[in-house]
Write a structure and sequence with these properties.
The N and C termini lie far apart (about 40 Å). This protein has a single domain, classed as mRNA Triphosphatase Cet1, Chain A (Alpha-Beta Barrel), CATH 3.20.100.30. By secondary structure, the chain is of the alpha+beta class.
Amino acid sequence: MLRNEIKYLLTYEDYVILSRRMAAILTLDKHTVSPDGYRITSLYLDDKNDTSYYEKLSGDTNRKKYRIRAYNYNSSVISLECKEKKQSKINKTSIRIDHNTFNKILVNDFRPLSDINNDLARTVFALNREKQLKPSVVVDYVREAYTHPLSNTRITFDKELACGINTNDFFDEDYKSGYIFPHNEVILEVKFDEYLPTMIRQMLSIGYRPLAASKYMLCRDYLKSHSIIINNTQVGGQKV
């Protein structure tokens, strides 16, 4: 099912106020493991022409992004996902993969996907063969999430946005990240099916700043601006 998605960039002060208001009327997401929420870490894939990056940059309203995602650094539950954008609506499909498949993809070996009887796995395997789809950047953040049953509404506050700066293997004990927002800004995402409940719409009518860039783009831009390139290349004059 295609869903609506709206994004805002909040100051930390606005986040504190709005999250308290949301907590008073909404239900915490079932995946929440601490008062701060839960950690999401994704390895995004892009091809040799950086198609995903430039489609977003050019404002293409019909595009797809592929990623591998885990929660709270739990290597026993890893998902391969496709997030599809059609005009102003989104859709996500996913399948489970094992840690061995993840490790193979890290070194650009997508062959384990060819053994999985699933359209998404076959598509990603084909894109690696045809367009050299490969690991691009790790995107890491803490999500505080709330839900409302009307129109399947979901409100998320994504905090501590960071990208991997020394490896694409986010399960590596030496994994290090660089933080994107110097003033602790928070990304607010609002997802719903047909309509946004009135009380939530009123809370968002204050005039928060819409966010056009994706987390993927923000993290890619961070790596570029700091001259960081992962895997056997120079990072500030040193190998990683």
